Amino acid sequence: MAKLLIIDDEKAIRGALRDILEYEGYTIEEASDGEQGLELIKQNDYDVVLCDIRMPKIEGLDLLLRVTEMGKATQFIMISAFGNLETAVEATKRGAFDFISKPPDLNRLLVTVKNAVERGKLIVETKVLKKKVYRLNEIVGQSSAIKRVIDTADRVGPTEARVLITGPNGSGKEMVAKRLHERSNRANMPLIEVNCAAIPSELIESELFGHEKGSFTSAIKQRIGKFEQADGGTLFLDEIGDMSLSAQSKVLRALQEHKITRVGGDKEIKINVRVFAATNKNLPLEIAEGRFREDLYHRLNVIPIHVPPLAQRRDDIPLLVEKFLQDVATEYGQPAKAVEDEAMKYLQSLPWTGNVRELRNVVERLVIMCNEVITYEDAKLFAMPVV
């Protein structure tokens, strides 16, 4: 059951709250002033703190602010006999879950505590999920080539600069885009991804900018495009080298003017979007052959990041294999498998034309098909290199 801390300088109030909440099955601890409460919070993890506002040594709102700065998921319910709207608003601004006047209404108190406990659980679960997602999106490697990529992404992420990410298919360009976003000031806003190569040229403008109802035959309702969906956040244009010239022109206008117009519409819509783009193509060559706009290239290529093919960072393969073994084991709910040294050396010797994506697929195949220890013979049998 949830663990609660009651902080109040009135012993009778603490006792009454303890009796009510222990009857409901909660584990209760008490503190008689803000200083004692702070020490207990430092030493323990509480789901909810019921905290008086006017107390000796440290007042309730100051205590709330200190605990918030500690980064704990503890939910605060402020209680006071001197409550007013201004105090309630100030408590909420400082991070309180709710504000209750003394003497508390029993039903409201129990509902508020229950909701606060649930909110705390959701915050903890969200943090765990974010850590798992971060591990899945983590760029792994110690080679000088990949270190340059990581260092550049970490330096550029907190800025508003546009980034052009180049590299072969399967090398991890989308991982770089996610790292840039996670380190940006927009990390709490959406990262919207668009695979330009997967969308037919006649639909790409509708996908990016949206369309109005009736703007073409199949437009049976209004559609919000990716630029609008990413407003306040980041738009990742993957394989931008495959985008039509018409769409390129509109993307250029959006970057220049921070405005878009839906297909079939005439209303200009302001947008606040940071754009990352990626391609496996040689854009200067595409420009020379008339397939890509030079002005758009220069707009996008403020910060270039090149992701090297796996064949140029073979020293990273053992680290990547270990990561994928852990990821697959977690996904399948089984212990991670080990790889013999000779098997690892064999994996390092392969050409890996499909890059990191191909390596991940091979590791998953080895996990499925092999015993607890993956041998050299297993690697030769199941890696199936493409030559």
UniProtKB/TrEMBL annotation:
<feature type="domain" description="Sigma-54 factor interaction">
    <location>
        <begin position="139"/>
        <end position="368"/>
    </location>
</feature>
<keyword id="KW-0597">Phosphoprotein</keyword>
<dbReference type="Pfam" id="PF25601">
    <property type="entry name" value="AAA_lid_14"/>
</dbReference>
<dbReference type="InterPro" id="IPR011006">
    <property type="entry name" value="CheY-like_superfamily"/>
</dbReference>
<protein>
    <submittedName>
        <fullName>Sigma-54 dependent transcriptional regulator</fullName>
    </submittedName>
</protein>
<dbReference type="Pfam" id="PF00158">
    <property type="entry name" value="Sigma54_activat"/>
</dbReference>
<dbReference type="InterPro" id="IPR025943">
    <property type="entry name" value="Sigma_54_int_dom_ATP-bd_2"/>
</dbReference>
<dbReference type="InterPro" id="IPR001789">
    <property type="entry name" value="Sig_transdc_resp-reg_receiver"/>
</dbReference>
<keyword id="KW-0547">Nucleotide-binding</keyword>
<dbReference type="Pfam" id="PF00072">
    <property type="entry name" value="Response_reg"/>
</dbReference>
<dbReference type="InterPro" id="IPR027417">
    <property type="entry name" value="P-loop_NTPase"/>
</dbReference>
<dbReference type="InterPro" id="IPR003593">
    <property type="entry name" value="AAA+_ATPase"/>
</dbReference>
<dbReference type="InterPro" id="IPR002078">
    <property type="entry name" value="Sigma_54_int"/>
</dbReference>
<feature type="domain" description="Response regulatory">
    <location>
        <begin position="3"/>
        <end position="117"/>
    </location>
</feature>
<dbReference type="InterPro" id="IPR058031">
    <property type="entry name" value="AAA_lid_NorR"/>
</dbReference>
<keyword id="KW-0067">ATP-binding</keyword>
<feature type="modified residue" description="4-aspartylphosphate">
    <location>
        <position position="52"/>
    </location>
</feature>
